[in-house]
Amino acid sequence: MARPTIADIATRAGVSKGAVSFALNGRPGVSDATRERILKIAEQMSWRPHSAARALGAARVDSVGMVIARPARTLGVEPFFAHLLSGVQSGLSAESISLQLLIVEDTAAEIEVYRRWASEHRVDGVILVDLTVKDPRVEELKALELPAVVIGGRGGKGALSSVWADDRDAMLSIVEYLAALGHRRIAHVAGTPNFQHTQRRIRAVRDAAPRLGLLEAPSLTTDFSDSEGAAITRKLLSQPDRPTAIVYDSDVMAVAGLGVAMEMGVTVPGDLSIVAFDDSILTQLMHPALTALSRDTFDFGRQAAEVLLQTIADPGTVVNRRTANPVLTVRESTAPPA
Amino acid sequence: MARPTIADIATRAGVSKGAVSFALNGRPGVSDATRERILKIAEQMSWRPHSAARALGAARVDSVGMVIARPARTLGVEPFFAHLLSGVQSGLSAESISLQLLIVEDTAAEIEVYRRWASEHRVDGVILVDLTVKDPRVEELKALELPAVVIGGRGGKGALSSVWADDRDAMLSIVEYLAALGHRRIAHVAGTPNFQHTQRRIRAVRDAAPRLGLLEAPSLTTDFSDSEGAAITRKLLSQPDRPTAIVYDSDVMAVAGLGVAMEMGVTVPGDLSIVAFDDSILTQLMHPALTALSRDTFDFGRQAAEVLLQTIADPGTVVNRRTANPVLTVRESTAPPA
DNA sequence: TGGATTTGATAAACCGGTATAGCTCCCGAA
DNA sequence: TTCGGGAGCTATACCGGTTTATCAAATCCA
Question: Which of A294, B210, B283, B328 is a Cys-bridge partner for B292, taking CB atoms 3.0 to 4.6 Å apart?
């Protein structure tokens, strides 16, 4: 027989559909003896709930969504997303909730997806990444009343739940380390200026500079691509008073920067120290291996899932959870200046 | 008012639910005038179908699934998956079908997911990757009667639909190119031996060796990790008659191999030519940039989606589609031997 | 002991669509 | 003039669960 339904179980157990439903969901209304009997029969018939039928009862769909808005070609180099995804899933699988993943071209398309998901009842909540300054998605999700959690940034004034790491603190730890090594000319090759975390990192560098006695500490924004990372590095290293250390906002840009240094005959870490804000296998494969900030991205995802489930369970609450601070993994690309 | 239903539309249009359903699905049963009126009202009320309600009618769920069975930590370095995913989605979005993505630890867990999906009616079909020799998933999916398409390998004797590229041909083009440059000692650092494509590539090397007059052409299997790639390279380069060219089955291993060569004072491409079977930003960031086999992974995914939709529409058919041949992108890591 | 409450279970409504049997017109052919 | 038949639409059952109103029997308490 194909796919047993609760009606089949009811017939076999000699009870009503309702009783079976109560038994299977662990709610009161049946005696322990009956419950046990029903559960055993369900087990025997290897019954599984029909997800659509469940979802129809205006209840949850047991599915959450995640949209990544990036042009396809810039995606996938960073292990960041893969680890984040694994983490999110490990957080969800405990409750056997599934994840819908979508990759779209831009934020407009992303919002369109949220509207569709909301109106079609496809997900119970969503996870947001790459939060920008004045992000339009926050307002939209509030309007749609779709539970959401923001990763890596606070969701506006108590608007959405969030899971975030202290970028400021992390950046300070990098700059302080470089200053302690003796560097006085430090450059910061940042990411897209409209990302919230980019702003926070830039501010951290600017605020710390005077205190650490830095002569120079410019932050230069890019589109996160390897080519812009390389171009900016070329420009920095061509200056008469070139920096003795560069901090890159991503591992890909750091690797590109290392390539430029080698091509220009600038030795690393002799003439130039390099630090990547993101760690991955990339930074470890280099020669010299790059000093990088390591974050537990997997755990990040896991916590996001947890917070989202809380928010779904009680749509009123807004949770802002701060995760463990990232740590600086020192490798071969940093040393005192010549 | 929250979420209009077809009943609301029916009331407003002064017709029955059935008529509305006919009109919205473009099937006969209503006059053109009525249809037009209903469509306009639906548009005004911004009606969207409730996916669960649709799915309940024993029909399709408009959702397909994809499970990637890899330990979280080895995942995400290769842009391969990200591009594949984007491609799959672009193929699906035309029909506004959503994608469920799951990352699990091993094949056992993967099969468990298929069972759950099938019994809970969560997906209409699935996409398989990383096909192994005697893959247990093929049998399982046949048993579950879940439409499926295999990416990168044939699905057994007409068992499942598939989309594949000619690995043999691709490998031949690499080896022939190296032979033409004058290389006679070529090593092949392969992936996991139980993958079908690994087997095909190994066979291609073995078959071509005599014809091309190669003195030596060993294929050495690994677990695809950078560390094993490095270890094997170290061993190869320590031999008295070391190879003058190495072909790596993945970009990550090729990069690791390049690192080993540099660390051992073996110049690339002077003393050693390196070719990666997979292209990505990684290979381009290196110095020297690596010669690599470029595949249109995005298109691969798109075609897989297409074939899957065909298979879902008509569960009887088995489509085996061969995609465009990959091309060798020559960069700086290959040259005639010294 | 009798009325009030609790327990264990049932029948039926409901969620939002789809599918189908059947009804009413209206037209054309015999 | 009657009958067949198709177009256009309605009413209703159905999909597989959840939930609620209802009810009988058991239990409790004064």
Answer: B283
> Residue B186's pLDDT band (boundaries 50, 70, 90)?
very high
User: B305 and B151 in contact (C-beta within 8 Å)?
Assistant: no
Residues of B numbered 165-224 whose beta carbons fall under 8 angstroms of chain A's beta carbons: which are they?
none
Q: Which residues touch strand C (CB under 7 A)?
A: A 14-19, 22, 28-35, 56-58; B 3, 5-7, 17-18, 21, 24-25, 27, 29, 47-50, 53-54, 56-57, 59
Alpha carbon A116 to its chain's center: 23
Q: CB distance from A256 to chain B under 8 Å?
A: yes
What does the pLDDT read at residue A148? 93
Q: Give the contacts of A22 (CB within 8 A, at least 6 positions apart).
A: A28, A29, A30, A35
User: Nearest Cα to B100, choosing from A97, A307, A150, A328?
Assistant: A97
> H or E element: which one contains B223?
none
Instruction: Decide: residue B40, CB within 10 A, 0-12 exposed, 13-18 middle, 19+ buried.
Output: exposed
Percent of chain B's residues with pLDDT above 70: 95
- How confident is the model at residue A176, as a pLDDT? 97
pLDDT at B58: 64
Measure Cα distances from A111 to A68, A104, B61, B99, B180 in Å: 11, 10, 22, 17, 53
A120/A124 Cα distance (integer angstroms): 11
Residues of B in contact with A81 (CB under 8 A): 76, 82
For residue A276, the model assigns a pLDDT of: 96
CB < 8 Å to B81, chain A:
76, 82
Which positions ≥6 away from A136 have C-beta within 8 Å?
A: A107, A111
pTM to 2 decimal places: 0.84
Mutate to test the interface with A, among B24, B86, B286 (most CBs of A within 10 A): B86
B84-113 tens-digit pLDDT: 888 898 898 877 788 888 888 889 999 999
Q: Judge: B281–A77 Cβ closer than 8 Å, yes or no.
A: yes
Would you say A147 and A315 are in contact if contact means Cβ atoms under 8 Å apart? yes
Q: Could B101 and A99 be called an inter-chain contact, meaning their C-beta atoms sit closer than 8 Å?
A: yes
**Residue B126 and residue A130: Cα distance in Å, rounded?**
29
Structure tokens at B34: 């009525």
Judge: A82–B75 Cβ closer than 8 Å, yes or no.
yes
For position A169, what pLDDT does the model report?
93
Q: What angle do CA A40, A41, A44 make, to 5 degrees?
A: 90
Mean pLDDT of B191-202: 92
Interatomic CA–C1' length for residue B31 and nucleotide C26, angstroms:
15
Residue for token digits 């920096």?
A: A243
